[in-house]
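Minutes, project check-in

Agenda point 3 was the complex the collaborators sent over. CS summarized: two entities, 406 residues total, and the question is how they sit relative to each other. Sequences were read into the notes so everyone works from the same version.
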Amino acid sequence: MAKTESTLKNMVLTLLVITAIAGTSLGFMHKLTKEPIAAAKLAKQQTAISEVVPGYTNNPGEEMYEATSKEGFQLKIFPAKKDGELIGVAIETMTNKGFSGEVKIMVGLKPDGTIINYKVLEHKETPGLGTKMDLWFKTDKKNQSILAKHPKNNNLTVSKDGGEVDAITAATISSRAFLDAVRVAYETYQDNPANQPVASEAATTEEGGAQ
Amino acid sequence: MNQWNNFSKGFFKENAVFTLLLGMCPTLGVTSSAINGLGMGLATTFVLVMSNLVVALIKDFIPDKVRIPSFIVVIATFVTIVEMTMQAYVPALFDALGLFIPLIVVNCLVLGRAEAFASKNALGSSIVDGIGMGLGFAMALTMLGAIRELLGSGKMFGAVIFPEDYGMLVFVLAPGAFIALGYLIAFINRVKKEA
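CS then shared the predicted structure for the full assembly.
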């Protein structure tokens, strides 16, 4: 077959046809994968919540509410309840003080603020150094662990800054960022006027019922 | 026999990483573990095979002056398909590779094969070339990933070989990628010389 000549008409037509086909197939693909992607994201969120505040019987994803931290971050707060009683909150928190950008973690707090557990969601820290945070702060070794500590009663900063948590070896900045994210979560939860989700939630239901 | 040549050429003789030194960005960037290398290699293989296939089919319809933009659109389409599929069905791998998946578009290996091979050869040979080049790339990335993972953190495909404390951290970081790749290329060249 003779090769198509490089005339303006041919070139414009070819590119038009190719991009149109590409666009159509991508649109189709997007439709196909939209639901699985959403499901995968939801499953990830669910696993994270059940890991940081185990034992709930409600659906924290449905009762999620947002709060803005002092720094202006939008945090998602998932109340975990067992038989209607608040057993803890999973807070999707973040900081921009990471070694390379944002660090997003999910931290589980008891209603009084004691840390239950955490899960690292997203970060761009150095592989092999900062990435160790996903296990480091739950390992019960020396002063590494932050589990069962209280951000108010315990000084949760790295020992270099006078705190009582051992930073990750060779990743002090990442450690600081991690602890900062925990602090953001705790403070936002404490300062938020709607931090009594049980009460406020009940109030809205009653109001809704009365109307 | 000819097709076998096409395959082995891409897989070993003209291996993209060890001989042509193409696609260095993902090679050095994602190979901090063997599984990441394998995942990246297979994703690239898929894009390479599909883009070679399409380019071989449409090569006669494309005017010479717009062939590069046309190829890039074809490649970008398949990369986006891979990205969406991964995100939907293997989110863990997607998280690990993240940024590097869209970067397959500008992997010079893919465009290089489309331009240098698929646009000049028949459909069958182009597909075989894509498979050979792709699997060669995947093999190289997996090898590099395995070496870095073993030396850096004492693991192989996530299985612990020796305690992490004895690992040489530098191999997980960027400089280790260069060092490991350099030695690997030297070793492959040595093997080739004898063969």
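Noted in discussion: Chain B touches chain A at residues 32, 58, 60-66, 69-70, 73-74, 76-77, 80-81, 84-85, 87-89, 91, 95, 152-153, 169, 172-173 (CB under 8 Å).
Follow-up: revisit at the next meeting once the mutant set is ready.
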